[in-house]
Protein backbone atom coordinates (compact mmCIF):
# COMPACT_ATOMS: atom_id res chain seq x y z
CA UNK A 1 0.00 0.00 0.00
CA UNK A 2 1.36 3.38 -0.97
CA UNK A 3 0.05 6.70 0.28
CA UNK A 4 0.08 9.63 -2.12
CA UNK A 5 -0.14 13.12 -0.67
CA UNK A 6 -0.46 16.15 -2.96
CA UNK A 7 1.13 19.17 -1.28
CA UNK A 8 2.20 21.28 -4.26
CA UNK A 9 -0.34 24.12 -4.01
CA UNK A 10 0.27 27.80 -3.26
CA UNK A 11 -2.11 28.00 -0.29
CA UNK A 12 -3.34 31.37 -1.51
CA UNK A 13 -6.25 31.50 0.92
CA UNK A 14 -3.88 31.22 3.86
CA UNK A 15 -1.70 34.20 3.02
CA UNK A 16 0.37 35.77 4.57
CA UNK A 17 1.38 32.53 6.34
CA UNK A 18 2.01 30.79 3.03
CA UNK A 19 4.42 33.46 1.79
CA UNK A 20 7.18 31.66 3.67
CA UNK A 21 5.70 28.22 4.43
CA UNK A 22 3.86 25.70 2.29
CA UNK A 23 0.30 25.47 3.61
CA UNK A 24 0.75 21.93 4.91
CA UNK A 25 3.54 23.08 7.24
CA UNK A 26 1.38 25.71 8.93
CA UNK A 27 0.92 24.87 12.60
CA UNK A 28 -2.39 23.65 13.96
CA UNK A 29 -2.87 22.13 17.41
CA UNK A 30 0.90 22.24 18.08
CA UNK A 31 2.31 20.69 14.91
CA UNK A 32 2.20 21.17 11.13
CA UNK A 33 -0.99 20.10 9.35
CA UNK A 34 1.02 17.44 7.48
CA UNK A 35 2.36 16.06 10.78
CA UNK A 36 -1.15 15.10 11.88
CA UNK A 37 -1.64 13.12 8.65
CA UNK A 38 1.76 11.42 8.79
CA UNK A 39 1.29 10.41 12.44
CA UNK A 40 -1.89 8.57 11.45
CA UNK A 41 -0.16 6.86 8.52
CA UNK A 42 2.77 5.74 10.66
CA UNK A 43 0.28 4.40 13.24
CA UNK A 44 -1.19 2.24 10.44
CA UNK A 45 2.32 1.21 9.35
CA UNK A 46 1.92 2.88 5.98
CA UNK A 47 5.42 4.16 5.38
CA UNK A 48 5.74 4.18 1.57
CA UNK A 49 4.63 7.70 0.76
CA UNK A 50 4.79 9.77 -2.41
CA UNK A 51 4.71 13.52 -1.84
CA UNK A 52 3.72 15.65 -4.81
CA UNK A 53 5.61 18.83 -4.13
CA UNK A 54 5.75 22.19 -5.89
CA UNK A 55 5.59 25.57 -4.16
CA UNK A 56 8.25 25.65 -1.38
CA UNK A 57 8.66 21.89 -1.81
CA UNK A 58 12.21 21.84 -0.38
CA UNK A 59 10.78 22.81 3.02
CA UNK A 60 8.47 19.80 2.89
CA UNK A 61 11.40 17.50 2.08
CA UNK A 62 13.40 18.84 5.02
CA UNK A 63 10.43 18.49 7.39
CA UNK A 64 9.56 14.93 6.38
CA UNK A 65 13.17 13.70 6.23
CA UNK A 66 13.97 15.22 9.64
CA UNK A 67 10.85 14.41 11.63
CA UNK A 68 9.81 11.15 9.94
CA UNK A 69 12.97 9.14 9.15
CA UNK A 70 10.84 5.96 9.27
CA UNK A 71 8.92 7.13 6.19
CA UNK A 72 10.25 5.87 2.90
CA UNK A 73 9.51 9.10 1.06
CA UNK A 74 9.46 9.65 -2.69
CA UNK A 75 9.14 13.20 -3.98
CA UNK A 76 7.82 14.15 -7.39
CA UNK A 77 7.54 17.71 -8.59
CA UNK A 78 4.39 19.14 -10.09
CA UNK A 79 5.75 22.00 -12.14
CA UNK A 80 2.42 23.64 -12.99
CA UNK A 81 -0.66 23.74 -10.76
CA UNK A 82 -3.10 22.26 -13.27
CA UNK A 83 -5.34 20.52 -10.75
CA UNK A 84 -5.49 17.46 -8.55
CA UNK A 85 -5.78 14.99 -11.43
CA UNK A 86 -2.61 16.44 -12.92
CA UNK A 87 -0.93 16.27 -9.51
CA UNK A 88 -1.66 12.55 -9.10
CA UNK A 89 -0.62 11.95 -12.72
CA UNK A 90 2.78 13.40 -11.80
CA UNK A 91 3.13 10.62 -9.19
CA UNK A 92 2.54 7.74 -11.64
CA UNK A 93 6.26 6.84 -11.83
CA UNK A 94 6.20 5.95 -8.12
CA UNK A 95 2.97 3.93 -8.05
CA UNK A 96 4.21 0.50 -9.24
CA UNK A 97 0.61 -0.64 -9.71
CA UNK A 98 0.21 -0.96 -5.92
CA UNK A 99 -3.06 -0.18 -4.14
CA UNK A 100 -3.05 3.50 -3.36
CA UNK A 101 -4.36 5.72 -0.65
CA UNK A 102 -4.63 9.35 -1.73
CA UNK A 103 -4.97 11.94 1.03
CA UNK A 104 -5.15 15.69 0.48
CA UNK A 105 -2.34 17.33 2.42
CA UNK A 106 -4.39 20.16 3.89
CA UNK A 107 -7.15 18.13 5.52
CA UNK A 108 -7.29 16.48 8.91
CA UNK A 109 -9.49 13.44 9.30
CA UNK A 110 -10.85 12.08 12.52
CA UNK A 111 -11.49 8.70 10.94
CA UNK A 112 -10.41 5.11 11.29
CA UNK A 113 -7.95 4.75 8.37
CA UNK A 114 -7.59 1.01 9.03
CA UNK A 115 -11.31 0.40 8.62
CA UNK A 116 -11.39 2.64 5.55
CA UNK A 117 -8.57 0.67 3.93
CA UNK A 118 -10.11 -2.70 4.73
CA UNK A 119 -12.91 -2.14 2.24
CA UNK A 120 -13.12 -4.95 -0.33
CA UNK A 121 -13.64 -2.40 -3.14
CA UNK A 122 -12.17 0.98 -3.99
CA UNK A 123 -13.72 3.60 -1.75
CA UNK A 124 -13.97 7.40 -1.52
CA UNK A 125 -14.47 9.32 1.73
CA UNK A 126 -17.66 11.42 1.64
CA UNK A 127 -19.70 13.64 3.88
CA UNK A 128 -23.24 14.94 3.52
CA UNK A 129 -23.11 18.72 3.20
CA UNK A 130 -25.79 21.39 2.76
CA UNK A 131 -24.12 23.07 -0.18
CA UNK A 132 -22.06 20.70 -2.32
CA UNK A 133 -21.39 23.19 -5.12
CA UNK A 134 -17.79 23.75 -3.92
CA UNK A 135 -16.89 20.05 -3.96
CA UNK A 136 -16.75 16.96 -6.11
CA UNK A 137 -19.92 14.96 -5.45
CA UNK A 138 -20.92 11.32 -5.78
CA UNK A 139 -24.20 9.93 -7.10
CA UNK A 140 -24.88 6.36 -6.01
CA UNK A 141 -27.00 3.56 -7.47
CA UNK A 142 -29.39 1.55 -5.30
CA UNK A 143 -26.55 -0.82 -4.27
CA UNK A 144 -24.47 2.06 -2.89
CA UNK A 145 -22.00 1.91 -5.78
CA UNK A 146 -20.91 5.19 -7.34
CA UNK A 147 -22.64 5.72 -10.65
CA UNK A 148 -21.38 9.19 -11.37
CA UNK A 149 -18.95 11.75 -10.00
CA UNK A 150 -19.33 15.45 -10.74
CA UNK A 151 -16.86 18.19 -9.84
CA UNK A 152 -18.41 21.35 -8.36
CA UNK A 153 -21.94 20.77 -9.72
CA UNK A 154 -24.00 23.87 -10.49
CA UNK A 155 -27.23 21.92 -9.86
CA UNK A 156 -27.86 20.25 -6.48
CA UNK A 157 -27.60 16.72 -7.88
CA UNK A 158 -26.12 15.18 -4.72
CA UNK A 159 -25.17 16.31 -1.23
CA UNK A 160 -22.43 13.65 -0.85
CA UNK A 161 -19.23 15.67 -1.04
CA UNK A 162 -15.84 14.03 -1.62
CA UNK A 163 -13.75 14.94 1.42
CA UNK A 164 -10.25 14.21 0.12
CA UNK A 165 -9.41 10.59 0.96
CA UNK A 166 -9.45 7.99 -1.76
CA UNK A 167 -8.55 4.29 -1.64
CA UNK A 168 -8.02 2.82 -5.10
CA UNK A 169 -7.55 -0.92 -5.52
CA UNK A 170 -6.74 -1.07 -9.20
CA UNK A 171 -3.93 1.45 -9.39
CA UNK A 172 -2.92 0.27 -12.86
CA UNK A 173 -6.35 1.20 -14.19
CA UNK A 174 -6.18 4.55 -12.38
CA UNK A 175 -2.82 5.17 -14.07
CA UNK A 176 -4.45 4.52 -17.47
CA UNK A 177 -7.26 6.93 -16.60
CA UNK A 178 -4.86 9.63 -15.44
CA UNK A 179 -2.91 9.24 -18.69
CA UNK A 180 -6.16 9.56 -20.65
CA UNK A 181 -7.17 12.63 -18.64
CA UNK A 182 -3.89 14.37 -19.39
CA UNK A 183 -3.52 13.20 -23.02
CA UNK A 184 -7.07 14.23 -23.93
CA UNK A 185 -6.73 17.35 -21.77
CA UNK A 186 -10.12 16.72 -20.12
CA UNK A 187 -10.75 19.79 -17.96
CA UNK A 188 -13.55 20.90 -15.68
CA UNK A 189 -13.56 24.50 -14.45
CA UNK A 190 -10.20 24.85 -16.22
CA UNK A 191 -8.45 22.10 -14.23
CA UNK A 192 -7.43 18.48 -14.75
CA UNK A 193 -9.58 17.07 -11.97
CA UNK A 194 -9.04 13.85 -10.03
CA UNK A 195 -12.85 13.55 -9.96
CA UNK A 196 -12.86 13.26 -13.78
CA UNK A 197 -10.09 10.63 -13.74
CA UNK A 198 -12.15 8.64 -11.23
CA UNK A 199 -15.20 8.95 -13.49
CA UNK A 200 -13.11 7.38 -16.29
CA UNK A 201 -12.23 4.62 -13.82
CA UNK A 202 -15.92 3.98 -13.18
CA UNK A 203 -16.62 4.03 -16.93
CA UNK A 204 -13.97 1.33 -17.36
CA UNK A 205 -15.76 -0.90 -14.87
CA UNK A 206 -14.06 -0.22 -11.50
CA UNK A 207 -16.52 -0.68 -8.64
CA UNK A 208 -16.17 2.25 -6.24
CA UNK A 209 -18.13 2.71 -3.03
CA UNK A 210 -18.29 5.56 -0.54
CA UNK A 211 -17.53 5.67 3.16
CA UNK A 212 -19.00 8.37 5.40
CA UNK A 213 -16.37 10.43 7.19
CA UNK A 214 -17.86 12.63 9.89
CA UNK A 215 -14.62 14.09 11.25
CA UNK A 216 -13.38 16.14 8.32
CA UNK A 217 -11.42 19.29 9.07
CA UNK A 218 -10.24 21.66 6.41
CA UNK A 219 -7.22 23.86 7.03
CA UNK A 220 -7.54 25.97 3.89
CA UNK A 221 -8.23 29.40 5.38
CA UNK A 222 -7.88 31.26 8.67
CA UNK A 223 -11.41 30.51 9.86
CA UNK A 224 -11.30 26.76 9.14
CA UNK A 225 -7.75 26.48 10.48
CA UNK A 226 -8.88 27.91 13.84
CA UNK A 227 -11.87 25.54 13.92
CA UNK A 228 -9.53 22.62 13.24
CA UNK A 229 -7.22 23.87 15.99
CA UNK A 230 -10.17 23.94 18.39
CA UNK A 231 -11.14 20.41 17.45
CA UNK A 232 -7.59 19.03 17.83
CA UNK A 233 -7.18 20.64 21.25
CA UNK A 234 -10.53 19.26 22.39
CA UNK A 235 -9.15 15.78 21.64
CA UNK A 236 -5.78 16.38 23.25
CA UNK A 237 -5.17 19.28 25.62
CA UNK A 238 -1.49 19.61 26.54
CA UNK A 239 -0.01 21.89 29.19
CA UNK A 240 1.91 21.85 32.42
CA UNK A 241 1.15 24.11 35.36
CA UNK A 242 3.10 27.31 35.45
CA UNK A 243 3.29 29.92 38.12
CA UNK A 244 1.22 33.05 37.50
CA UNK A 245 -0.39 31.60 34.43
CA UNK A 246 -4.09 30.79 34.26
CA UNK A 247 -4.84 27.99 31.83
CA UNK A 248 -8.37 27.57 30.50
CA UNK A 249 -8.43 24.21 28.71
CA UNK A 250 -8.27 22.99 26.09
CA UNK A 251 -4.88 24.37 25.11
CA UNK A 252 -1.58 23.24 23.70
CA UNK A 253 1.41 24.85 25.37
CA UNK A 254 4.80 23.54 24.25
CA UNK A 255 7.02 22.44 27.10
CA UNK A 256 9.80 24.83 26.08
CA UNK A 257 7.51 27.86 25.59
CA UNK A 258 8.06 30.68 28.07
CA UNK A 259 4.71 31.85 29.42
CA UNK A 260 4.47 34.37 32.25
CA UNK A 261 1.67 36.39 33.90
CA UNK A 262 -0.85 35.37 31.30
CA UNK A 263 -4.23 33.79 30.71
CA UNK A 264 -4.10 31.10 28.02
CA UNK A 265 -7.19 29.49 26.52
CA UNK A 266 -9.55 28.21 25.71
CA UNK A 267 -8.52 26.85 22.30
CA UNK A 268 -5.06 28.40 22.25
CA UNK A 269 -1.95 26.82 20.76
CA UNK A 270 1.38 28.14 22.01
CA UNK A 271 4.10 26.42 20.00
CA UNK A 272 7.77 25.57 20.53
CA UNK A 273 10.07 28.31 21.81
CA UNK A 274 7.33 30.94 21.98
CA UNK A 275 7.45 33.71 24.54
CA UNK A 276 4.13 34.93 25.91
CA UNK A 277 4.29 37.62 28.58
CA UNK A 278 1.50 39.55 30.33
CA UNK A 279 -1.06 38.51 27.73
CA UNK A 280 -4.45 36.91 27.29
CA UNK A 281 -4.72 34.52 24.36
CA UNK A 282 -7.81 32.62 23.30
CA UNK A 283 -8.88 30.75 20.17
CA UNK A 284 -5.57 31.47 18.49
CA UNK A 285 -2.44 29.82 17.15
CA UNK A 286 0.92 31.26 18.11
CA UNK A 287 3.54 29.57 15.92
CA UNK A 288 7.02 28.55 16.96
CA UNK A 289 9.52 31.19 18.10
CA UNK A 290 6.90 33.95 18.08
CA UNK A 291 6.73 36.52 20.86
CA UNK A 292 3.58 38.10 22.33
CA UNK A 293 3.78 40.72 25.03
CA UNK A 294 1.13 42.86 26.78
CA UNK A 295 -1.55 41.79 24.34
CA UNK A 296 -5.08 40.50 24.29
CA UNK A 297 -5.48 38.17 21.29
CA UNK A 298 -8.56 36.33 20.12
CA UNK A 299 -9.20 34.44 16.82
CA UNK A 300 -5.64 35.20 15.76
CA UNK A 301 -2.84 33.53 13.83
CA UNK A 302 0.70 34.60 14.66
CA UNK A 303 3.35 33.18 12.33
CA UNK A 304 6.80 31.82 13.27
CA UNK A 305 9.25 34.44 14.63
CA UNK A 306 6.54 37.16 14.52
CA UNK A 307 6.40 39.68 17.35
CA UNK A 308 3.22 41.24 18.79
CA UNK A 309 3.69 43.91 21.43
CA UNK A 310 0.83 45.80 23.05
CA UNK A 311 0.95 48.51 25.62
CA UNK A 312 -0.07 48.65 29.23
CA UNK A 313 -1.95 51.86 30.02
CA UNK A 314 -1.81 54.13 32.99
CA UNK A 315 -4.96 55.92 34.17
CA UNK A 316 -5.83 58.20 37.02
CA UNK A 317 -9.60 58.64 36.99
CA UNK A 318 -12.03 59.65 39.67
CA UNK A 319 -15.46 58.57 40.89
CA UNK A 320 -18.16 57.96 38.25
CA UNK A 321 -15.74 58.57 35.40
CA UNK A 322 -16.18 56.42 32.32
CA UNK A 323 -13.45 55.75 29.81
CA UNK A 324 -12.98 53.35 26.93
CA UNK A 325 -9.50 52.13 26.17
P1 LIG B 1 -6.26 23.21 -2.55
O1 LIG B 1 -6.75 23.82 -3.81
O2 LIG B 1 -7.14 23.29 -1.37
O3 LIG B 1 -4.86 23.86 -2.09
O4 LIG B 1 -5.81 21.71 -2.84
P2 LIG B 1 -4.10 25.14 -2.60
O5 LIG B 1 -4.20 25.26 -4.08
O6 LIG B 1 -2.73 25.06 -2.02
O7 LIG B 1 -4.91 26.31 -1.85
P3 LIG B 1 -5.47 27.70 -2.38
O8 LIG B 1 -6.72 27.36 -3.15
O9 LIG B 1 -4.38 28.33 -3.25
O10 LIG B 1 -5.74 28.50 -1.15
C1 LIG B 1 -5.91 20.65 -1.89
C2 LIG B 1 -4.58 19.92 -1.77
O11 LIG B 1 -4.14 19.46 -3.05
C3 LIG B 1 -2.86 19.99 -3.37
C4 LIG B 1 -2.68 21.21 -2.48
O12 LIG B 1 -1.31 21.41 -2.20
C5 LIG B 1 -3.46 20.83 -1.23
O13 LIG B 1 -2.67 20.06 -0.33
N1 LIG B 1 -2.83 20.32 -4.83
C6 LIG B 1 -3.89 20.94 -5.42
C7 LIG B 1 -1.71 19.96 -5.57
O14 LIG B 1 -0.74 19.35 -5.04
N2 LIG B 1 -1.68 20.28 -6.91
C8 LIG B 1 -2.72 20.90 -7.53
O15 LIG B 1 -2.63 21.16 -8.77
C9 LIG B 1 -3.85 21.23 -6.77
Structure in words:
This protein is α/β, with parallel strands linked by helices. Helices cover about 20% and strands about 30% of the residues. The protein has 2 domains: about 1-220, Spore Coat Polysaccharide Biosynthesis Protein SpsA, Chain A (Alpha-Beta Complex), CATH 3.90.550; about 240-310, Hexapeptide repeat proteins (UDP N-Acetylglucosamine Acyltransferase, domain 1). It is built from 7 helices and 25 strands. It starts with a strand and ends in a 16-residue tail after the last strand.
Helix content: 10-25%
In this entry the ligands are: uridine 5'-triphosphate
- What portion of the residues fall into strands of 2 or more residues? 25-35%
CA(first)-CA(last) distance: 59 Å
Given helix and strand content, the structural type is alpha/beta
Count of discrete structural domains: 2
Q: How big is the Rg? A: 22 Å
* Most strands sheet: 7 strands, mixed
The poorly predicted ranges are none
- Strand order, biggest sheet? 5-4-1-6-11-8-12
The average pLDDT score comes to: 95
Overall CATH architecture of the largest domain: Alpha-Beta Complex
Number of strands: 25
Shape: elongated
